[in-house]
Amino acid sequence: SFPGGKRDPADGDAVATALRETREELGLALGAERVWGLLRTVPDRRGMMVAPVIANLGPLEDVTLTPNPQEVEEVFTIPLDHLLQPENQGYTHFRAKGRYSHTLPIFLHGPYKVWGLTAIITELTLELLAPDLY
C-alpha cells in the first residue's frame, strides 16, 4: 500500500508522514516499530520528490482496514509470488511530442493494472525483497 500526501507541519519526518497518511487513508494505525525503512526518493510526474516508506503489516488476516471513501476508491491485494511471475509484469512505453519519452513498469492482477508511481515503487520494493527473483 502506498498512501501518500504532503508532509504536515506536525510530521517530524517522512516516516511520520507515511504513518499519518496510512491512518487517514486506510484507518490503519501503525507504530514506527513496524517500519522497515525508506526506499530511495523518486520524482512524481510534477517533479515533487516522493520518499517511499516500507512497513510490515503482519498477516493480512489480522489487519482491519477502514478506507476513507474520500481518498480511497477500492482496496485490493496482490500476493508477492504473483508479482514475481513474469507473465504478470510488463512495461509501458510513453511518447511525447511524437517521440519516445520514457518507459515505466506495469503489473497485472485480474482486472487490476498497477502502473505509474505505484508501479515504480512496487518495482523498487521487489528489487529489495526478492533480488534473485526479480
Automatic annotation (TrEMBL):
Entry keywords, A to Z: Hydrolase, Magnesium, Manganese, Metal-binding
Highest taxon of source: Eukaryota
Residues covered by the Nudix hydrolase domain: 1-101
Pfam family, one: NUDIX
Requisite cofactors: Mn(2+); Mg(2+)
Endpoints of the signal sequence: none
One term of GO molecular function: coenzyme A diphosphatase activity
CDD domains: NUDIX_CoAse_Nudt7 (cd03426)
Name under which the protein is recorded: NUDT8 protein
Organism whose genome encodes this protein: Nothoprocta pentlandii
